[in-house]
Every structure is written in C-alpha cells, then in structure tokens.
Amino acid sequence: MEKIYKDIERVLISKEEIAKRVKEIGAAITKDFVGEEIVVVSVLKGSSVFMSDLIREIDLPMDIDFLVASSYENTTSSGNVQIIKDINIDVENRVVIIVEDIIDSGLTMYNLTQLFNVRKCKEFKICTLLDKQERRRAPVKADYIGFDVPNEFVVGYGLDYNGKYRNLPEICVLKPEIYE
Ligand code: IMP
Ligand code: MG
Questions:
Q1: What is the pTM of this model?
Q2: Containing domain of residue 101, as a range?
Q3: Is residue 45 packed enough to be buried (19+ CB in 10 Å), middle (13-18) or exposed (0-12)?
C-alpha cells in the first residue's frame, strides 16, 4: 500500500480496532434477531468492504443485496436522493439491515428510510461504520454505529476520495494538499 499511503496524513482507526468493532456489531445483530432470517442491504460502493466483513460476524440466516443511491452534491438543497440501482429482494415483512460506510449530513439515509417505509418491512435498522454527527442536516439516527468520527474527511476501508483509497485497510485522514 506504499503507493497510496504517501497521500495519508494519519491513521484514525486501525485494522485491529475495526475488526474488533465489526465483531461486536455482528454479535449485537445476531443477538437482536435470533430466530429471524434477515436481509442485509449494502449501499454501494462505500459500504462494500464493511458489509463483507460484517456478514461473516452475523450468525443468522440471511439474504444480501445491494443498492446504489445518487449523490446529491450537484443537485439543489432539497437533498433528493435517487436510486440508481435498487435491490431485487422483496422486503415486505422482512427484517432489513441497511449498511452504510458513513452518515454525514444524513440526507442519503433519510431518503433511503422513506423509501423502505413504503415497502412495509417487519423492521428496518440502520447500521453505519462511521457517524459524523456534527454534520447532520436530516434527522437520522443509526441503530448500530461502528465509530463516531470528527468532522474530518476520511478514506479507506471502503471510503473514497474521488473514487480512490477504498482499498486502504485502515480508516485514514488524507493530507490536506490532496484537496488543494
Ligand atoms: P450523507 O448523505 O451526507 O450522510 O452522505 C453520505 C455519503 O457521503 C457517504 O456514503 C459517503 O459516500 C460520503 N461521505 C461523507 N463523508 C465522507 C468522508 O469523510 N469520507 C468519504 N466519504 C464521505
Ligand atoms: Mg457512499
């Protein structure tokens, strides 16, 4: 990883800390839904790394699926999020756990919550690896949170800057000159 570490200022959360926390969240989900067959939905692309580790720590029968939501960055302040690719599974009367890499403004998850409301899930739970509460603009609270993070832009373990750095095994802070 030498070639991409040159852009990193510091490691915020180590591999070991991530693995420990993922195990804990997996155990909590297992305990909370004993006897259920759950559906785990990954919001692509950012949560793919977290999701693939997390499902191997959940000792329940499950289906997995993926969705892609549009970024709202270039749209107006309404924060409308569109589904570019939807899940294929019928989630009516199913326990759904949606997995995100990070909740920032909360607009993406707020809109996804509205969407799943219509689908009449038995339960709808939000699981996020990272939570940047300071930046919240929409009323969203996750049910399972890996780590609270400060208001700094982070990359690695699935999170990107301009599509890059997702393959870093840790959560890292980029050098400021990368943005400038
Ligand atoms: P929200 O709709 O503002 O909550 O944004 C959620 C999305 O913004 C995440 O799924 C990420 O793709 C992206 N994002 C927000 N903060 C960061 C960050 O610090 N690093 C990488 N991506 C981020
Ligand atoms: Mg994302």
A1: 0.95
A2: 16-149
A3: middle
**Position in ligand 1 atom list of the atom nearest CA 103:** 4
pLDDT tens, position by position, 9-67 = 999 999 999 999 999 999 999 999 999 999 999 999 999 999 999 999 999 999 999 99
Beta bridge partners of 62: 38
| Chain-centroid distance, C-alpha 45 | 9
Tokens representing 114 are: 């509205």
Q: How far apart are CA 155 and CA 164, in angstroms?
A: 8
- What's CA 4's distance to the chain center, in Å? 22
Name the pLDDT band for 79 (thresholds 50, 70, 90).
low
Atom 15 of ligand 1, residue of closest alpha carbon: 104
Please indicate whether residue 90 is annotated as part of the active site.
no
* Centroid of chain to Cα 28: 17
- Residue whose pair of structure tokens reads 């570490």 in the numeric block: 5
CATH number for the domain spanning 119: value is 3.40.50.2020
In this structure, which residue's CA is closest to atom 16 in ligand 1?
104
Identified catalytic residue from 104, 131, 148, 160: 104
Please tell me the total count of domains within the chain.
Answer: 1
Is the shortest distance between the CB of 108 and ligand 1 below 6 Å?
yes
